[in-house]
């Protein structure tokens, strides 16, 4: 193990980026500057395709696909890494030689057959690798430092001796793009980044929790008829200030492409810096222009059959995890739910046929208007169950206040009383919830429109809406989940809060029954 003192001394005698970053990490940890927010963020599990059968791509009739691939290249994002970053991105190819064995859910370990651990053959593992962990032999639990044999986990940039004159550094690694045709001119662009290692967060006496081999993170853009309208950012701290869905005009851009700030160690992707996790505008710049590996997600917006890829994209069919299995035998696991090493994540080819993190909608003053459509599976279900009515529920929330707290008066004009915590699922215990309901006739394939009352009461603000399918007698027999709404005022930046919205939902409603 390398001591903190040795690394600090090495920093003054060398300009190697990896050493400097590691020293800064050490200093941050020692003086308690590393944010130790709750480790409630989980990588999404591998989700099956919308259809039970996957579709093998046909190379004919690809004009629309070609346009989508061009969009992926055109809007290649710029990622700004923290100057405290020690664990840098890489290509997947960089990691392939380091995978020594696979582990099954039952604990069976098999040596790696490196003839299949590559882009073209990774999906030839049993069951496309479903349930397997691609694993390394070397130690991978820095507390806070890696063993020398594991230093490849710093990534190629972390092992590089060079530095440009501006001292910022440049990362030149692949980013993996997925284009998703949602229909009606809506195309979602998903950009996934890969890191050999995720550095966890210090949690008091338990040490650094949440370390794992391999890390996949993403930024999502939405375009309509080729024009960007929004982007989704995914920080690990939940949603305050920088995560969520933002209008295109309020996003920082370089040459018309989105900029994202990457959290040191955990690599969450934020719109702003210095507000969540450890982000800044001082570290290496990762401009992915010319480095996008693009792919089409499914056959088309009607069939929504996930593609089965071939050739150099065959690795996208792999269904296992990209690093070692985690630990669950630490004594504090029952207290915090994590050990120092956790499971590696799934790969990037997940369920992309989903709405944005929240629906952007302008505020209005007198009443709310909602416009929406149902997807084909809902239409079929509604026909078979004699659905005649649709109930719309507008979910309104306001913070609970303590009347005995003189420092927290019930001030309807106080912006601190209506902050983005209203969007946080974990705030349910300290917000009041009010549902405003309306019922309209079921209109089948047509777009449904409803005008309804605003939220009632001081400081109640729109947070979400949901739908129910109902019989003629008014009994509702199926209800959707909520869709969060991010409200704003026209001609103003950022999210604002209010009691009524004008919402045009461009994502068809679909849910399980």
TrEMBL record:
Protein name: Vacuolar protein sorting-associated protein 62
Region (Disordered): 398-417
A Pfam family of this chain: Vps62
InterPro entries per record: Vps62
Feature: compositional bias, Acidic residues: 404-417
